[in-house]
Amino acid sequence: MRVVIDALRTFWPQITATATVLFQLATAAHAILYKRDSRAAVAWVGLIWLSPIVGSVLYILLGVNRVRRRAAGLRGHESEHVPSLERWLCAPPEVLERLPDDRAHLLEMSRLGARLTELPLLRGNRVEPLIDGDVAYPAMLEAIESAQQSITLTIYIFSNDAIGRRFVDALARAVDRGVEVRVLIDAVGARYARSSIVRKLRANRIPTATFMSNLLLWRMPYFNLRSHRKIVVIDGYIGFTGGMNIRGECVLADRPAYPTRDMHFRVTGPVVEQLQATFVEDWNFTTAELLSGEKWFPSEREATGGVLARAIPDGPDHDMDKMSMAFQGALSVARYSVRIVTPYFLPDRSLVAAINTCALRGVTVDILLPSENNLKMVSWAATAQLWQVLEWGCRVWYSPPPFDHSKVMTVDGALAVIGSSNWDSRSLRLNFEVGMECYDTELVYALDQEIEARISVAREVTLREVNDRSFPVKLRDGAVRLFAPYL
User: Fold this and answer.
1) For residue 364, what are the β-bridge partners?
2) What is the pLDDT of residues 252-284, one digit of tens each?
3) Residues 6+ apart with CB under 8 A from 257
């Protein structure tokens, strides 16, 4: 033992140097083998070798996706808890029957969606837009109060404020009635408030879990892979999804200090089962409890409307890039108009190319962004790359305050892509998201009318305006844009 200690004392510089080189080799090799984007691989390898130890540690914390290996194993269980939806399957001929003759080309998007998600397009659904928390929260609370069998809720931010406590009280009453309740909150989103709502939920005997909350150092990569999904399902029949968190800022009538516009959706019909299956997979991943049976997946369903719909689960695992490809697919089939409403617009090169190609084909492309963003650095980075879409004929609009957090895309008056995804790399590559692909002229007309009303009071952004920014501002915006994947 003494010989070993003496050897370590004598040769510790060589041992340390060798260990460091091996550590860097291992992390660099991992980046080369597993990073899909060659630019990302080059950046990580450069950081690893130019910043010994620090670069490797940052790569382990931010660059390694360990969720894929664990989550992928859950797919084999889906057949155990999801009843058959064969009665509600919508085959291509029926899609054509439901679309106007001059919108028949959207059939190609429905085919892309089927291959992309491996989920069927379902008929018999109703999708209702709920504008702002003033409308959405009362609808959600009413549904929770009416629950008889089960409630599932997954959310990114669940604030411990007056609105959050109203939801806690409603969920507690449901538990007292004997309703099975499961609440899943993202671990980072749960910390947005000084006092987390999680303790209050658990104090009211509401089964609650936090998504990827482990703080052990070797499992810290999870802090970079967040659940940004927003899903509520009542008795397996009524669903709510979209981009709205649970927080007082969304209730404009209360005149909050930081008001936030948003759009959510009430969903009924067979597609609710796909939303529920998305929650069940996340809950199983987090808690190892597999929810199944009539309480969660009722076998008897009825048509509630004429919307053809399909859920689009997206995340850094087996669902990687699905929302990004869905956006690109919708852009590729568009012939007349595309409207995009998003709070954060930092698309990667493939999405920028798809948007520009769409505009060059003669499609009218309108992009509605908030004039005052709640994240200044995101706004600066977005401004730095607006020229990429403006120079090819896209129209960009800045909506006036309050901050607009809505996430909606409409195509040719008959297709809507809704959900929790923003148009940025963090949302499309690092977060777990959920979207919906909806075909219905009445729904899309209502959404287009809402978007048109917002555009009517918005300010159009010109290429000249972007180019005329001062040099210091351009430098600031361009520098921040370099960190776009992490904003």
Assistant:
1) 337
2) 999 999 999 999 999 999 999 999 999 999 999
3) 249
Q: Render 249-298 in DSSP notation, one character per residue.
A: GG-GGG--SS-EE-EEEEEESTTHHHHHHHHHHHHHHHH-----STTTS-
Question: What confidence tier does 188 reach under pLDDT thresholds 50, 70, 90?
Answer: confident
What's the rounded Cα separation, in Å, for the pair 49 and 454?
Answer: 49
335-355 pLDDT, tens digit each: 999 999 999 999 999 999 999
Record the tokens describing residue 73, joined without a space.
Answer: 């194993």
What is the CATH number for 185? 3.30.870.10
Averaged pLDDT for residues 71-81? 42
Closest to 399 (Cα-Cα) out of 466, 327, 451: 451
SS3 172: helix
Whole-number Å distance between alpha carbons of 336 and 106: 11
pLDDT in the model for residue 8? 56
Res. 432 pLDDT band, cuts 50 70 90: very high
Partners of residue 432 on adjacent β-strands: 227
97 plus 27 within the same structural domain = no
Q: What pLDDT, on a 0 to 100 scale, did the predictor assign at position 79?
A: 42
60 and 144 co-located in one domain: no
Q: Name residue 39's amino acid.
A: R
Distance CA 186, CA 207 (A): 14
State pTM to two decimals.
0.88
Contact 207/249 with Cβ under 8 angstroms?
Answer: no
123-146: pLDDT as tens digits:
999 999 999 999 999 999 999 999
Peptide bond into 259 cis (omega under 30): no
Half-sphere exposure of 34 (CA within 13 A, CB side): 16
pLDDT higher than 90, residue 74: no
Provide the domain limits for residue 10.
Answer: 2-64
Q: What gap in Å lies between CA 25 and CA 445, rounded to an integer? A: 56
Q: Residue 400 carries which DSSP code?
A: P
Residue 431 within any structural domain of the chain: no
